[in-house]
Amino acid sequence: MRRIWKWIVGIAIVLVVVGLGAYQFGYKPAQSPKTVTLGSYGPDTQVWEYIAKLPETKKVGINLQVKDFSDGVSLNKATVEGQVDVNAFQMESYLKYFNQNNKKGKLAVLGTTYLEPMGLYSNRYKSVNAIPDKSTIAISSNPANTARSLKLLQSAGLIKLGGEPKNGLYQPRNVTDNRKDLKFREVDDHTGPRLLNDKTVAAVVIGNTMALQSNLNVKKDAIYHEQLNEDTKGNINVIATNAKNKNDPNYKKLVKLYHSKPAQKYIKQKFHGTKIDVNKPASYFN
């Protein structure tokens, strides 16, 4: 028994010495990857599923689980309630609108991803100037996209907006100059592309997610589209989380992963350049 105990003590001493020596020379035991659940929907889900499989994601110690949602409202609520850690689907102005109207919790921006230009499409007219007086233009009924639609029409020179926007979002009542006497038909985002063949509608404002799902390329098929500038700052898409988690270092890694070279190469090829890369910190919106 004494010999056995001597062997046990000796082996323990050797293990301790070897362990201390290894630590001294910089060896550290491998840590388990951090599981992060990200919610998205539409084409963006495909992007994050691709990022989840990248070697770069594994290297930074992230096990990324991607959940697909059918709409943004439920996804934001799931993020506030902790059902998902992070989400990536919305523009900054929509996040701001959600925060103003949600009393159960707030979201915070971790960083930016891209600008998807919103476009004005028409199967009947080849230019903005060709749209006749008294025409009907279909715009989004989603409050954030309604405001964005109207700002797009303003930048195209069709209308002018004025007055104080409600919750920072313009509505048709804010149209102060309508030189062509245009009428606005507010429709669900999913309905917009189908109205391109409706003879009662001259043109349709369509967001890029719906355009992509309808095989439309905003740079080739739209008669007018947004440009990346100060006026479209609020239209930049962001990665968001519950406000209490905004400083989580693992969540912030997702911003760098999105802007990594392999991810950007995939996005450019997959979406034909319709997602314009915008790499800005959260403070960009302050």
From TrEMBL:
Species per Swiss-Prot/TrEMBL record: Fructilactobacillus fructivorans
UniProt keyword annotations, A-Z: Lipoprotein, Membrane, Palmitate, Signal, Transmembrane, Transmembrane helix
Stated name of the protein: Methionine ABC transporter substrate-binding protein
Pfam families: Lipoprotein_9
Phylogenetic classification of the source organism: Bacteria, Bacillati, Bacillota, Bacilli, Lactobacillales
Superkingdom, taxonomy of origin: Bacteria
Family: Belongs to the NlpA lipoprotein family.
Bilayer topology: Lipid-anchor
Compartment list: Membrane
Keyword Cell division annotated: no
Transmembrane feature ranges: 7-26
Cellular component terms per the entry's GO annotation: membrane
InterPro entries: Lipoprotein_NlpA
Keyword Membrane: yes
